[in-house]
Amino acid sequence: MNTPRKFAEETVLLHAGRHPEDNYGIVNPPVYHTSTVLFRSVEELLETRVDRASGAFEKFTYGREGTPTTRALEDAVTALEGGYRAVVTSCGLGAIAASLTAFLNAGDHLLIVDSVYGPARHFCEDFLSRFGVEVTFFDPLIGGEIAGLFRGNTKVVYMESPCSLTFEMVDVPAVVAACRPRGIVTIIDNTWASPLCFKPLALGVDVSLHAATKYISGHSDLMLGIAVCREDAFIPVKKTASASGYCGGPDDVYMALRGLRTLALRMKRHQESATRIARWLQQRPEVARVMYPALPDDPGHAIWKRDFKGASGLFGVVLKECSAAQLAAMLDHMDLFKLGYSWGGFESLAVPTYPATLRSASPWTEPGPALRLHAGLEDPEDLIRDLEAGFARLGDAA
Q1: Which of 73, 217, 325, 334 has its CA at 20 to 30 Å from residue 92's CA atom?
Q2: Is the omega angle on the peptide bond into residue 162 within 30 degrees of 0, that is, cis?
Q3: Does the keyword Lyase apply (predicted)?
Q4: Is the pTM of this model over 0.85?
Q5: CA torsion sign, 240 to 71 to 95 to 230?
Q6: Inter-residue contact 141 to 166 (CB < 8 Å)
Q7: Which residues make beta-bridge pairs with 225?
Q8: In Å, how far from its chain's centre is CA 362?
Q9: Cα–Cα distance between 199 and 204 in angstroms, integer?
Q10: Would you write out the chain's pLDDT as a tens digit for each of its 398 residues?
Q11: How many alpha carbons lie under 13 Å from residue 239 in its C-beta half-sphere?
Q12: CB atoms within 10 A of CB 372
């Protein structure tokens, strides 16, 4: 966009990262399939080496470093998040790994929220710890009291809000306020909210991560991650991602960029459907509680309302105690809520979850089974009928 005018975010979403004037007037950026980039002279080749050494990463040098298609996606998501620059990686976990290892060395201390995305937890416990990084998990409700966990070697605090599986809201501004005077880097997984519904960089967070596999793509057909950085954080993350080989494939990058254009419409529908279904579930006799911070009676609603502009279609449900056979009877025969990992696509999904197996600092004590539901783009009344039939099967299996 070549004008300084301030546009609505929905408009920026459609135009950011596109430069038709540079591509023969073609609306969408072309897909660049390449490993090798050719140079016209030794002088030009050496200039690109200087560019990489300085950390500018402005020129295209090799496929792993990115292409104009990659840059278009990075620029578009950066514009939405209000960041400095972004780094595309091969998947969401790649963005997590690159961002953590960019700021951690042997002997450093990492604080990470206890209710974190399971693969991120395993990366910290099984990988970082082997290389001498001390890992401590903290209660997601700790807020500014996190300062009591700081050590002299604490270098990074890693957050998710809302949290995976259990959907607690982290008081991000309070955590950042405790970290910044001490020079502690803050990283957050912002996949649940998408770049539209939460702006963690505006609250002082250093790196905002997305599994672009999910809402940015929106179609359950690619693997991609992206780390949106403040200026001081960009070079460490970019250098680490490049050196680790976390590069996104050209077709996946293009498809994520195409999916991004409809994000505002999709997120609105996801939230509307999730809210409708969550309220219906609260009235069901089989349900102990619903975990969705957009609901006014959710424990994290005040923080969500203060910091977020919207919600997604992902939420949790705790059922009243029932047998494994009853739960299977409910979930095995759903027409629309299919069993499957990931989320953020157009389709609805359901999986049983086991939060107690992924906690160490804040125990999970709910006696009944838990579910994670993703409200897709189907008619919400059809989704409710699907759940209603599932509950009937649960009851019949008693």
Answers
A1: 334
A2: yes
A3: yes
A4: yes
A5: positive
A6: no
A7: 89
A8: 22
A9: 9
A10: 544 468 888 888 888 888 888 887 888 889 999 999 999 999 888 887 766 666 667 788 888 989 999 999 999 999 999 999 999 999 999 999 999 999 999 999 999 999 999 999 999 999 999 999 999 999 999 999 999 999 999 999 999 999 999 999 999 999 999 999 999 999 999 999 999 999 999 999 999 999 999 999 999 999 999 999 999 999 999 999 999 999 999 999 999 999 999 999 999 999 999 999 999 999 999 999 999 999 999 999 999 999 999 999 999 999 999 999 999 999 999 999 999 999 999 999 999 999 999 999 989 999 999 999 999 999 999 999 999 999 999 999 98
A11: 14
A12: 21
Tokens, residue 233 = 């954080």
SS3 185: strand
Residue ranges of alpha helices (H) inside 182-319 are 194-197, 231-244, 250-260, 263-282, 301-307
* Whole-angstrom distance, CA of residue 231 vs CA of residue 85: 7
Rg (CA), the chain: 22
Spatial distance between the Cα atoms of 235 and 232, rounded to a whole number of angstroms: 7
Residues labelled as active-site residues: 64, 117, 189, 214
Q: How far apart are CA 270 and CA 348, in angstroms?
A: 10
Q: Go through the chain and tell me how many residues it has.
A: 398
Exposed, middle or buried, 194 (CB in 10 Å: 0-12/13-18/19+)?
buried
Joined tokens for residue 9? 């975010």
Q: Tokens 């990988």, residue? A: 127
Select from 217, 186, 214, 212 the least CA-distant residue to 201: 186
Three-class secondary structure of residue 158 per DSSP: strand
H or E element at residue 331: helix 324-331
What is d(CA 164, CA 294) in angstroms, rounded to the nearest whole number? 15
Q: Name all domains of the chain by residue range, CATH numbers in brackets.
A: 9-32+67-260 (3.40.640.10), 263-396 (3.90.1150.10)
